[in-house]
Structure formats: structure tokens, C-alpha cells
Amino acid sequence: MSGGGGDTDRRRRALAIFDALVDLPPAQRQARIDASCAGDAALRSQVQALLDADASHDEPFSGDAASWRVVLEDRSHDPAAGDATAVGRSIGAWRITGVLGRGGMGAVYAVERADGAYAQRAALKLIRSGSDTPAARERFLRERQTLARLQHPHIATLLDGGFSGEGDPYFVMEQVDGVPIDRWCDERGLGLRQRVVLFLQVLDAVQYAHRNLVVHRDLKPSNLLVTAEGQAQLLDFGIARHLQDAGATAPGDRALTLEYAAPEQLHDAPITTATDLYQLGVVLYRLLCGAHPFGVDADTPVARQLQALSRDPQPVTRAARQVAQDIAAARGHAPRSLARALRGNLAAIVHACLRREPDTRYASAEALANDLRAWLDDRPVVAARLGRGERVRLWLRRNRVLAASAAAVFAALLAGTGVALWQAHEAREQARIAGRESANAREALAFLADTLGAAAPEQALSREVGVRELLDKARTQLDQRTAIDPQVRQPVQRMLGRLYQSMNDNQVAVQLFAEGLAGIEPARREEALALADDLVAYSDALGFLERNAEAFAVAEQAVALRTRFAPDDPEQQLRSLAHLTLGHVDRYGLEACRQRAEQALALSRRMQDPPVDVVLDIYSDLSTAANFQNDRSRQLSVSREGLAFADAHQVPADSPVRLTLLRGLVNGLLMEGKAGEAENVVRQALASAGKTGGFGGSSLSVLLQTLGETVLRQGRYREALEAMEGGAREAERAGDGPRNRAMTSSNRAVMQVLVGDYPAAMDLSDRAIDILRQEQVDADDVFGRTIERAHASVLMANRRFSEAGALLLDLRERARRLDGEDSEEYALLVGQQLILALRGNDQARGLPLLAEARARMAKRGVPETHEQFAHFLRFEAGFAWQRGDTVAAEGLQREALQRLESAASATDVAVARAQLAGYIAARGDAAQARRLLAEALPPMRAAVLPQEASRAEAEALARRLGM
Q1: Maximum mean pLDDT: which of 195-199, 677-681, 743-747
Q2: Between 20 and 30 A from 937 (CA), which of 7, 566, 584, 841?
Q3: CA 727 to chain centre
């Protein structure tokens, strides 16, 4: 049995003898070996292997080692024969253009597509002839199968695979232009927090692999590349194992990289996800302090590495104190300050990964990620047991904003109370200034002291007190204290209303504002302007609930107060002009409101020091208006301009006032085809909202739907559906207004169409239409028309073509009347009519619509490189196929596929590839059709259900071709 006690004892004796002999001259070594080994041939062989390894400068554990014992016995490693002369050789559909690297089984080549189907650069891995043993070939093919199963934005994607003309297996994957994660961080001088944020991308990819029952087993910086855009990519699953097989890994298949090997990899123990967690701990250790936890590197002789790995890792803080000045400087520290920064929770997290026993490490990559996020947020972590003092310190750091807010609340409440009582108590002003507080002020202070006391550190030691819990406690106590004077109660109600509004609970906020503003008639300027600000907040909360008529009326009350009490104040004029609600849109129309916002922006630019919050609200309104008008170019430009204004005025990156602008930026990036960048932006927005508890002019349901759209554009349909369903749950919880609830249901319906659950899509879309009807939303409402346009797509998916056609005709006429024929809304409807004509085999209507759609896209300045023009080619190919022109259909589809390769998601490319396979199979080239389907089906199967139309057609073709 491998790994038995005798073998372990022999290894220890071999290492001890090696240590005694390694520094002796060679002649003396030979004389001592025989005596030390006392006739034990196996022991002598191991000692000799250690001495030979020590004399070599090669790194034996390069990803193709067996167990360490086997490698010590056979350290031969010849580069793949003919690597340099392979340039120019064709393998399958690929031509070799260079050598990217060499490994134990062979070489990785830079290749480009050589069959003329489309242009693409990639990386091809070919097994080395000398390594083509049954075990090596099995491992190679297993890597290919593993990659085919993994579809994740931070895992390099498999593109192709097969056997060369000589019968050697190969596979092709996307070529990642990046550098190892440690070098990438050092070259940019990233601080500890930035390194942790980047490392979280790696954890996301590893957790995804683990969910798919894959253990990587070779996690190291050279397999964790980072692109110029800051996107981590996990590579090289060459020694990965499926979890169902990992526990039974044979001794001859225990490949590893020694520097990053977990203890169980060295001792024939079962391989689990904890193995990857250990390796991640080594990587994180190096990222944070620039040293190895055991003080070894690739140049350390293998025997000395083994000795070092048998000890406990050096504390990361001690390693940090010992690193060179330039290594610490690359992290924004001197060695001593770096050690201090790592002390505590971060060090505990790292060392929790490096525990020798697998079951004492983190339970999952997700658990490790949660602790790192807790460290980023100054929350307690699972890996560390905190004392009372440390927990208090963390609470104070984490709640410094809340603590500052509490101080501001006291001051604001006192000021508000003074304003409310100003006229009645003016005669007592001198006494108040002299220090004799009014009874009302003392009562307000007592109320706040009781309520906010729940957040004191000593109260929070046993449990975390959230902002929502604190607000609920304050509201309950306020309701219970019936004796509080209204002149104290109402300022507190308005303050709580603002806080609930920032937490996205507009229903409670509206109730508090209504009570806090009831019956108040200000008599002085300061009091009136403060009340006007509260009225604006009240109006916004009503607007979120789509109580638009009420929102408009309250907004006009604020304008009236500003006009009456500050008629010549430019700032108050700006505030009046800047505040817009959906009630204004209902009353005056979207274009009139957009023009008013433009006027407000122009006024702000004439002011020397305009209020930052108001200007950001104006930018947000302009971004939202551009979104409603489908003017994504304007939305992108105004969002970027607004965010630049926020940066120039030092608005914190996680401030809720940025969120609406970030959402506008996302929509604009999607228009430009930058879905990956858009996803990063919206995830940052969600993280900021989660951190601060505020959503600004947005909402959690809208942000989740926006996230869904970004991953949808990348072909991750099921992930998009999950995000949108999360948005729907949040909309129900938050009591969103009817338009937003209908839009949420409509978005989910569209996603179900893409996934392939057409009946579910119909139910959701019908529900959205019912909400519009029940709430009597006007037929010309921009929200309603968007939902109806989506409804037409759902009708088409369910083959209700006549209903879809009638609805599209009606919508097109309304768009002509309301938006004009040059609007994007009108162009979108032309595109949907085009799809309907193609689905219905209506050449007479379809070809003119195709020409019109192309012309409208060109007129709006969309370049022909845009993805939409590739889809136009697909439509043209479809019409050619329908009229029997198979040659034209194939040629057009090839051109469309070539364009989509560089612009579209993997799913869209797969669908186009499957359609081309159908055209090719029809002319009798079954072999080429099979190759195309072999590429198309894996991403389609990962993205959509079997009954989805494109997949069902591709699966049927595969069966006919015997696949």
C-alpha cells in the first residue's frame, strides 16, 4: 500500500543521509553512502536521487510530475522535439505561428485559424510524442474534457480539439494575453486591498470549478494570468481531476508543482477541494508579502524544498518584516509597516488556508472569499477568534460613517428643532445660546441616546447591529412615545424618512415623510428651505412607488417654498429647476423634461460653486431620459461626464449618488459591445450599495436586472436569468411601483425565451401586460411600450405570429407619432418586424425590412463592424436559404460567423456555427458539419435548455450525422 509507514520512514532516513552527505566532495560521498545505507538498496537509490536532484538546476515539478518519489528517480525532461521547426505546420484547422511554452508532456503553440472559416488567434496544446503513454494521453484528454465543461469569465475557454495527422491528441483554447498575477500586481504597485480584490476573481473561478466537481491541483501564479484590463484568467487544467475520481488518484498520477504542493499531494493522501485551498493560500501569501511561506523558490534544490515543506509555514508578518525594501514598496509600504498591515485578520485568513490537515482549512473557496470580503469591509472574519478589544476596534472602524452620521443627526435634530420653534421661542434665544436647553431639545437628545445606544460597541459584541435594525428600533420607540411634542416628533420622522429612503424602503419612507410634514407652515427662510429639501426627498420616494401625481404635487410645493422665500437665490432656482419626477414626465412629456434638465445643467455651469448633489442629480436625470429615449450614445456621454464631475469634486467611489450614473454607463458600454467592462461596473455598483446600504437614484431590483443584462450579452443566459429573478424578488420585497414590477416580469420573460422555456416566458409576459392594464398605464407611456415590444418577441417565440404582427404594427405607428422615424425605438420595431418576416418565411416583406434596418443603423452612425451588422448577414442568409439559394446562404453565414467571432458572445457564435453546419450538411459535407457542431454544441448546452429552438435544431442535426 503506497504511503505506508515503511515508505515514510525510508523517506525520512533518505533525507537525513542526504543532509549529512550533500556538502561532502563527490569522492567522499560514495564512500559514505554505502555505510550509511547499510545494504538497503531502495534507500541507497533514494539518497542518490536526492544528490542528483541537488546537482541539477532544472525544476522537475513543471506540471507533468508523478509523485515526488518517482520524479526523484527519473528527472529527465527533454523539450518537445521539433518545437522550433513546428512553426508553419498545420494541425486540424490551425497553423502554428510560434511557441508559447514547453511542459512535461509537450509544447503550447501560438496558432491562427488556417481553414478560412474566420480569423482567430489561439493557443494549441499538443502532446509530446515521447510522453504519449496511455496514462499521459488519458490525462491530456481529461484536460480537454474538463475545459469543455467549464464556461466562466475567469477561466480560459476551450475552442477546438482533435487528433493531428500523426494521431497525437491536441486541443485549442483562447490565447490569454496576460502576465502572472504576482508580477501584474508588483508592476502596478498595487496595495493590499487592491490585491485582495483581484484575488477574489481567482476565487470566483476556482469556486465555479469546484461546483462543477473539478479540482485544479496546480494553482500557481503562472497559471493565474491577468490581462491588461485587470481580468484574472485561470489556465492549465492539465493535472485537474474530477472530484468523483480524486480520492482514488493512483500514485503514478499525482502530478504537482512542488513549490505550491499541499501536504496531501506529497503523502499519497486523497485530493479534495481543500488541496486547491492550500495552493490558493500559498499564492495569497506571496501576493501579500512577496515571499514564499516556506522560504523556497524554483531554484531551491528539490531535496531542500522537501525538507522546508515538512515544517510549519513562516508567519506572514515575520516574512513581511524580512522582505527587501523594493518588495514592500511595491505594496505601498516599508517592511515594518507591511508587517503591521498584515497583522490580525489578514494573517489569520492566510494561515487558515495553510493548515496541514485538509479538514481544518476553509470549507470552500467561497468561504475564503467571504472572509476576504469581511476583511475589506472591516468586519470580523471566521478564520480569527477576536478578543473583546479587537471586536470593538473593528466595530468603530466599520461604523465610522454611522458614528459620524449619529453626530450629525444630533446636530441636525437640534438645528431642526430650533428652526421649528424659532418663531414661538424667539424670546428665549439668548437663554438657549447661554446653554439652557429647551425641554424639547433635551427630549430629542434622550430619544436619540436611547435609540442609537443599540449601536454602541458594547451592545454589538454579542451580535451585529445593522442600520436597518437600528432604524426599526428608532421608529418603534418613536411610535411608543406618544407624549413627545409634535415639534420634536416631526423632525425625527423626516430624518428617519430620509434614512429609510436611502435603504431603498420607500414605502416606510413615504409614511414617515407624510407624518413628518403634515400641517407645517414655515415662517422663516431657513425653515422653509429645509422643508423644501424634505419635500424633494418625499417626492422622490413617492416617485419610486410610481405615485406620480402625488410626487408631482409635492415637488411643486417645494418649488413654491423656494420661490416665496428665496426668489433671488441662484442655488434655490437651480434646485427648483433640477428636480424632476415621473410625475413631471406624465404631465409635460419626456422631451420637455429632458430640455428642462439641460437648462438646469447649463445654469449650474454658470455658477461658481454649484451644489454637487444637485448637479449629480441633473446628470442622473439626463442619463435616465436618454435611456428612455433609447439614445445610448447620449446616455454614455452624460454618464461619463457626471462621473468625471463626481471625481473632480471628490465624491467617494462608493457613494450612492453615483449609482444612477453607473447604471447609465453600463447601458452605454453595452451599446458599444463592451459587456465584460459593463459587468465589472455593475458589480462594483452592487458592492458599493451593499457596503453603504444606499442605492441613490437607483434600486437593488434595477441593479440586479442591469447585471442580468450584462451577463446576457456575454451569452451566460442562465446566470442572467438568476440575476433577473433576484431582481424580481427584490422588487416584490421593496414594493416597487407597477411600471418597475411589470418591467421586471417582462425582462424575465425575455430571458426565458432565450433560455428556451417558452411557456414560462408567456406567463411572465402576460403578467407584465396585466399589470399595465390593471394600473391603467397610458398606451403612450414609454415604459409600457417597451414592455409591449418585449411581449411581441414572446408571442413570436410561442409561434403566435399573427398576434405579434398586429402588435408590432400598432407599436410602430405609435413610435412614428411619439418618437419620430429617426428614433432608435422606431428602428428597434423595424428590426422586430424583420425577425417576424424571417420566422414566417415572408420574403416579400422581409427583404425590404432588412434593407431598411441596415439603412437606419448606418444613418445613426453605427459602424459596420458592430455586431448587429453580422446578424443582418445571418438574416440575409436565412432568406437565401428559404428561396433555395444554398450557395449564397452558406457564404453569407460564413461571413456573419467570421464577424461574430470577434464581437459576439460565445453562445451567439455557437448558434451561428450550428446554423452554418446545417447549410453545409445539406450540401453533403458531413465531416465539416460535424466539426462545426462539435464546437457549437458544448456552449449551447451550457447556456440553454434542450427545447430552445436553435439548440433543438442543432441536436437533431447531430443525431442525423451520427454524433
Answers
A1: 195-199
A2: 841
A3: 16
Number of domains in the chain: 6
Domain extent for 404: 386-512
What 8-state DSSP symbol labels residue 219?
Answer: -
Nearest CA to 199 among 282, 292, 131, 95? 282
Q: How confident is the model at residue 692 (pLDDT cuts 50, 70, 90)?
A: low
Alpha carbon 113 to its chain centroid, in Å, reads 31
Last residue of a domain, one of 493, 512, 531: 512
Cell digits of residue 545: 412607488
Chain-centroid distance of CA 8 in Å reads 46
Of 495, 481, 404, 482, nearest to 447 (Cα)? Answer: 481
DSSP 809-864: HHHHHHHHHHT-TTSHHHHHHHHHHHHHHHHTT-HHHHHHHHHHHHHHHHHTT--T
Judgement on whether residues 168 and 105 belong to the same structural domain of the protein = yes
Q: What is the DSSP string of 280-324?
A: HHHHHHHHHHSS-TTS--TTS-HHHHHHHHTSPPPPHHHHHHHS-
What are the strands of the beta sheet with 90-91, ordered from one edge?
90-91, 94-102, 106-113, 121-127, 169-174, 158-163
| Region for residue 806 given its phi and psi (left: phi exceeds 0; alpha: psi -120 to 50; beta: otherwise) | alpha
Selected residue with higher pLDDT from 22 and 411: 22
Phi, psi of 748 (to 5 degrees): -65, -35
The one catalytic residue in 218, 276, 505, 540 is 218
Beta strand extents in 25-78 (DSSP E only): none
Of all helices (H) and strands (E), which one includes residue 704? Answer: helix 700-712
Note whether 209 and 329 are same-domain residues. yes
Name every residue whose Cβ is closer than 8 Å to that of residue 542 and which is 6 or more positions away in sequence. 506, 510, 548, 550, 551, 554, 581, 583
C-alpha dist (Å) from residue 281 to 21, 221, 278, 365: 34, 12, 5, 11
3-state SS string over 350-396? HHHHCCCCHHHCCCCHHHHHHHHHHHHCCCCCCCCCCCHHHHHHHHH
Is residue 338 domain-shared with residue 404, that is, in the same domain?
no
pLDDT at 584 over 60: yes
Cα atoms in the Cβ-side hemisphere of radius 13 Å centred on 146: 28
Query: Is 257 a member of any domain?
Result: yes
What separation in angstroms does the CA of 480 have from each of 474, 475, 487, 630?
Answer: 10, 9, 16, 49
Q: Which residues, 6 or more positions from 652, have their beta carbon under 8 angstroms from its beta carbon?
A: none
**What SS3 class is residue 173?**
strand
Q: How many angstroms separate the CA atoms of 523 and 720, rounded? A: 53
> Do 101 and 227 share a domain, yes or no?
no
Lowest-confidence segment of 247-251, 527-531, 574-578, 602-606 by average pLDDT: 247-251
Torsion from C-alpha of 417, 419, 425, 427, nearest 10 degrees: 130
> Could you tell me which residues come within 8 angstroms of residue 121 by beta carbon, excluding any fewer than 6 positions away?
110, 111, 112, 175
**Distances from the Cα of 92 to the Cα of 161, 371, 898, 927, angstroms:** 8, 46, 18, 12
Q: Are residues 252 and 317 in the same domain?
A: yes
Separation between Cα atoms, residue 945 and residue 757, nearest integer Å: 7
Match 428614433 to its residue by C-alpha cell.
823
Q: CB burial class (10 A; 0-12, 13-18, 19+) of residue 800? A: middle
Distance separating alpha carbons of residues 519 and 515, to the nearest angstrom? 9
What is d(CA 84, CA 92) in angstroms, rounded to the nearest whole number?
19
Say which DSSP state 455 is in: G
Banded pLDDT at 630 (limits 50, 70, 90): low
Q: What are 233's strand-pairing partners?
A: 225
Q: Which three cell numbers stand for residue 566?
A: 428665496
Q: Give the pLDDT score at 456.
A: 40
Cα separations in angstroms, 251 against 71, 258, 761: 12, 16, 52
Boundary-marking domain end, from 174, 201, 224: 174
**Is 218 noted as a catalytic residue in this protein?**
yes
Distance (Å, whole) CA 948 – CA 925: 25
